[in-house]
Amino acid sequence: MKKVTIIGSGNIGLSLAKGLVNKSYCLPKDITLTRRNIKNLAEQAALGYQVSSNNAEAIKDAHIIVLAILPQQLNEVLEEILPNIDAKNHLVVSVISGVSCQDIKNKIGQDVEIIRAMPNTAISIGQSMTCIAGEKISDGNIQEVTRLFETVGAVIKINEELMTAATALCACGIAFFLRAIRAASQGGVEVGFHAEEALKMAVQTAKGAADSLLQMQSHPESEIDKVTSPKGCTIAGLNEMEHHGFSSSLIKGIKLSALKAGDLYSAES
Ligand SMILES: NC(=O)c1ccc[n+]([C@@H]2O[C@H](COP(=O)([O-])OP(=O)(O)OC[C@H]3O[C@@H](n4cnc5c(N)ncnc54)[C@H](OP(=O)(O)O)[C@@H]3O)[C@@H](O)[C@H]2O)c1
Q1: Ligand 1 pocket: which residues have CB below 6 Å?
Q2: CB-based burial of residue 92 (10 Å sphere; 0-12 exposed, 13-18 middle, 19+ buried)?
Q3: pLDDT, tens digit, for every residue of 12-69?
Q4: How far apart are CA 259 and CA 254, in angstroms?
Q5: What is the pTM of this model?
Q6: Amino acid 29: pLDDT
Q7: Which domains does the chain have, with CATH numbers?
Q8: pLDDT averaged over every residue in the chain
Q9: For residue 124, what are the CA distances in angstroms to 10, 181, 269?
Q10: pLDDT (tens digit, 9 = 90+) per residue, 165-210?
Q11: Which residues pair with 34 in a beta bridge?
């Protein structure tokens, strides 16, 4: 079993830990979780995770160090762990938006193998879309990180310059699709359903749409063509949404998120 230390046990750090344990990548005792306010990790400690507020100590036995703090917290953390970093034995995985592998190497040494990963919060239920990138990484380490993230979802290896684009599409994307589901349920209430049943219907309909594409490997438009009969109600609704900028607003939102994601660290440094 690989030992994993997750520095920054907030939303994504805890989601990753939960996903790895749920999918049997490792046991809670093989995962060390750190944060400054360790009281907030009492629940995880009771479940058998190692918890610590001392980052330097926490990485000593780790094979994989996952950096899951906010960009503005990174420099301080790197200074703390630098004395205990061992380029031969440690693999660093950073999920921090807007921070390049080179940014991290500049602080902790050029020899350390660093893989950048961009998961999303569906990692806690094993359904993340995770993009990974890194240069001069041994095949073994690429395979290990691919295996790690494949236990909690799908993995695509991309060029690092596309990482901020992946952040917008996949990490922020969870929120975009959730808002679309919420909006659909609100439409459902307007046409006659109670809020709870409208949400259930919208969620299952969205799941059906996504699963159709995944299972049939088809294109969204060919699935849409199957629902839109001439002069029918679906095309009327769909076109009305497009007149109000449905596709355009998603595209514009993703472009703006990508722009912001690229600036997060440089705005702080
Ligand atoms: N949320 C997402 O969907 C998502 C997806 C992909 C990538 N990311 C990236 O993942 C990173 C974390 O995001 P998040 O949403 O999980 O943020 P978050 O919930 O704020 O988690 C950050 C955690 O880091 C801890 N922390 C801060 N300083 C620390 C230090 N010096 N040592 C140890 N722990 C420290 C904080 O706890 P204390 O205050 O107690 O220290 C907090 O629990 C970000 O860089 C983000 O860009 C997020």
Answers
A1: 7-13, 34-37, 40, 55, 68-71, 73, 76-77, 95-97, 118-121, 171
A2: buried
A3: 999 999 999 998 999 999 999 999 999 999 999 999 999 999 999 999 999 999 999 9
A4: 9
A5: 0.90
A6: 97
A7: 4-160 (3.40.50.720), 173-261 (1.10.3730.10)
A8: 95
A9: 12, 20, 31
A10: 999 999 999 999 999 999 999 999 999 999 999 999 999 999 999 9
A11: 7, 52
**How much is the pLDDT for 269?**
54
CA distance 180 to 250: 10
Q: Are 170 and 131 in contact (CB under 8 A)?
A: yes
Note the residue count of the chain: 269
Place of tokens 């159709």: 212
List the structure tokens of 125: 């239920």
- Do the Cβ atoms of 98 and 264 come closer than 8 Å? yes
Distance 119 CA to ligand 1 centre (A): 13
* Residue 56: closest CA among 116, 111, 7, 114: 7
Q: Which residue has the higher pLDDT, 263 or 107?
A: 107
Query: For the packed helices 233-243 and 246-263, what is the interaxial angle rounded to 10 degrees?
Result: 50
Ligand 1: which atom is nearest the Cα of residue 37? 40
Q: Enumerate helices (H) and strands (E) in the chain, giving the number of each.
A: 12, 8
Residue closest to 89 by CA, chosen among 19, 138, 146, 130 = 138
